[in-house]
Amino acid sequence: MLLLVLYIDFNIHLLLIDSMKNTTYLLVLLMGLLFGACATQEHQGEPTGTGMRTETGANGISYQYVEGDPLKARIYTLDNGLKVYLSKYNATPRIQTYIAVKAGGKYDPTDATGLAHYLEHMMFKGTSKFGTQDWAQEKVLLDSIEQMFEHYRTLDDPEERKAYYAKIDQVSLEASKFAIANEYDKMLSSMGATGTNAYTTEDRTVYVNDIPANAVDKWLKVEAERFSMEVNRLFHTELEAVYEEKNRSLDNDGWQVYETMSKTLFPDHKYGKQTVIGTIDHLKNPSITKIKAYFSKYYVPNNVAICMSGDLDYDETIAKIQEHFGGWEAKPLAAYEQQKSAPLSAIQEKTITGPEAEYVQIGFKIPGNMAEERTVAKLADMILSNSSAGLIDLNLSQSQKVLNPYSYVSANNDYSTFILHGAPREGQSLEEVKDLLLEQVNKLKKGEFDDWLIDAIVNDFRISTIREQESNAKRAANFVTAFTNDISWADYVDDDEQMKALTKQDVMDYANEYLGDNYVVIYKKTGEKEVSQKVEKPQITEVHLNRDKSSAFLAEVNGQPMPDLKPVFVDFKNDMAVGAMKQDIAVWYKQNTENDLFSLVYQLDRGSNNDPVLAHAVNYLSYLGTDKLSAEALKQEFYKLGCDYGVYSGDRKVYVSLSGLTENFEPALEMFEDLLKNVKADEQALTNMIDGKLKQRADLVKNKQALLFSGLRAYAAYGKKSPTRHDLSNSQLKALKADQLIDKIHHMLDYTHKVEYYGPLEMETLVSVLDEKHQLPATLKALPEEVDFKVLEAEKPQVFWVDYDMRQAEVVMIAPLDTYSPKQTALVTLYNQYFGGGMGSIVFTTMRESKALAYSVYAAYVPANEKAKRDMMFAYIGTQSDKLKDALEGMTDLLNNPPRVEKNFEASKVAVLKKMESSRVIRAGVLNAYESTLRKGLTEDQTEEVYNELKKLTLDDLMKFQQQMIKGGNYNLAVIGKKENLDFKELSKYGDLQQISLEEIFGFEEDLAL
């Protein structure tokens, strides 16, 4: 992945989800389920193949389709073999695009692993037409660099290698004089594209863009040129980024577990014998020659698919694709042959140590995504773990026998892995967790689950499918999966129907065949890392970026006219309604005219900042039932109805939510209201919950991301008195009583609150149902005065740091700015695009492209977005410890003295305007936008005003804003790294050093004044 953009909301805690099933399952669904679409014209034609029909479009180009496919997908095959998958869905005037190549890490030569991933990075560097000022002169130097790297691979002596790399560095510096960095990103940004990125897995490489509907022609022109050739431009600085990526993987205990699982399950297959990112030895000895050969072999039209979903015209789009890609020359490519892997003969056990919390993971080798068994595998997984009523959900999670237990299928083409995961409670061994997980698998094998569960799961998939119909990204991702797995679209669409036909016996047979006693167990233990290797930093001279230059191709693309696309701004008076139910409770309403799903939220505008006990009360609710239904039975009944409920207490708000199928809205609401008012205490459940929470807290201080982005970030922003530390101490948690928490639940909605609804019901019907079923006291209480937290403003900046066993160092820089002003929104938006927004930004190109000082780097002006709150300036650096000095100096200089580049400014301005012209506020987002507007102290949405203001802004305006608002900011630093690797003399230049111990970072040992 090229860039992970970090966005920190300074008004909420880091949300730690108890169950990973939803997150993991969404990732599986993203690549494995069918997402429907709104209706388009019906097809007529004769069947072709198994379930496929053929039709000819108005332009004479034939395509295939599947009768009854809710996506109304058309699958084209050009004469050169290029596959094209199109689906029309016009909720917004945008199109999600993926260009998928059937080649990933598994295809790497054994002596050059990581090659596919290298190539993914290099595909953003341009061709002979863009990314260069003078291709003829640049090519001579690039060819020389290629040969130099081939010679470098033959050297063994460390000093000789170092000296020769210095020569490569000098030739690379000379070649960079002709390069123009990030022209690809500039062209895509100028169209209004978002999400520009790529990813490489074992089986595929995929290039990603979300484009405005009026940019199709431009996008195709750029991509056709991009895929016509591959140029290894600015190679050694990008190589350094890959080094960083490798080091980050070595710092990640979860990644080490993943690699160990793969090696052990697949010792005779490339899934286990090599990794996508490659070995350290191969990373240190890259071969440009082999990368070029890989591109020539696999990046051919008969091995590629263009996958698009959005506001498109089928006939026009395929005609344009034919125009731009029809001349791409096909090459012979051997038919795919699945690599075979023998079954394991016995149980394999491995141990991984690292600083993160302990857990156990069990993996079974199962047939891959290309096999017919993929459908029964999905069903078996859901019977075990569906977040509500699965065997693991009820027997381990609901009964609180294991922390964070779940299952999922890690799907690959040749073989997949059926994963079980669980973390120990206090005093529980990893072996005991393993046994409890395997006990659920044995129940699956024996059919010890209710008969209704399969029907409920099929219904759950139906609901998920409906929800995901609203995402072009997920719809198009299914095209990627079908293509790269060689699955006929007819078979892919039929997955849900196949699942309906499965029986309990089918699931039992599958479990007994594939989930036997030949699995792999990984015990992830807390301790010093066993992996001591890292990719060392080579000496790199800062290369030229030539930001003020541009190629003739870029000028041609930017000069190509685009059809007008007028912005549409939200109008709260017409796009939603505000009504009232009994006791004048406000009802914010938006009708869902697209499907039969609803979402209902009771929102209380006070949260755990005002009442820290409430957060624990709502957590307790998830383990409770009523005098009518046990907690387990309640979960099952909601699951049968195709509905789900949740209560969450944030810092400043409480959300009481219900969602699901509208046909079951009333019975689900009645059951939910009964739970809220008649919930029954369970002393054992409370004891288990508190014990589990104490263990989770102990695990939290071993989590690097939580330490940095929750604990340390809060220190840097607020000091010791922060929302993150505003929670009950461990001793206060232990003292909680069941009656105390039950009372909180019973009366949390006795205060003034509002209702937000997005669903099919008419307002009148909704209010009538709420008046009848929403239980309220005779008189609602007024909300108490809100508790607030002040940002930290010491006379001298401070550097808060935590000692953590890792190779890299990560830093967050935070400076408090002025009180939020909506009038600055246009300037803030444009500044963030210019300075820190994406691969073409000043921060990214300078810190990563030119200086190779960080793999992940980002900066942004973060508006409080609320009246009377303070804005913040935020920066993040993830880098090797030995680069930290240079990285901090580089970032500080950029924050205070950003370069003035007119071309970048104009590109940023166009990018922001194009995005706004194609953006739409839809569905429940209208309700969210309304709340955001009110929080700013406004009554009308300001987007139109911002759009008009943006048109008038100049680079002088932006530089003035930077000088007045950002330059010279008082930055507090949050630093996480291994003590012995941190340069404290250097860090002390940025403020007073203060080590934060793991015990005090979240304040769990300090009683909170209540």
Key attributes of the depicted protein:
1010 residues, alpha+beta, Cytochrome Bc1 Complex, Chain A, domain 1, 6-stranded mixed β-sheet
Tell me the name of the CATH class of the domain at 97-314: Alpha Beta
Tally the helices: what do you get? 38
Average pLDDT level = 91
Overall outline? globular
Portion in helices? 40-55%
Strand content: 15-25%
CA radius of gyration is: 28 Å
- Looking at CATH, which topology of the domain at 97-314 would you report? Cytochrome Bc1 Complex, Chain A, domain 1
The major sheet is characterized as:
6 strands, mixed
| Biggest sheet: strand arrangement | 4-5-9-6-8-7
Q: At CATH's second level, what is the architecture of the domain at 97-314?
A: 2-Layer Sandwich
Q: Write the CATH homologous superfamily of the domain at 97-314.
A: Metalloenzyme, LuxS/M16 peptidase-like
Outline the low-pLDDT stretches: 1-49
Count all strands and give the number: 28
What is the straight-line distance between the termini? 45 Å
Structural class estimated from helices and strands: alpha+beta
Keywords: Hydrolase, Metal-binding, Metalloprotease, Protease, Zinc
Organism: Persicobacter psychrovividus
Protein name: Zinc protease
Domain Peptidase M16 C-terminal: 289-459, 781-895
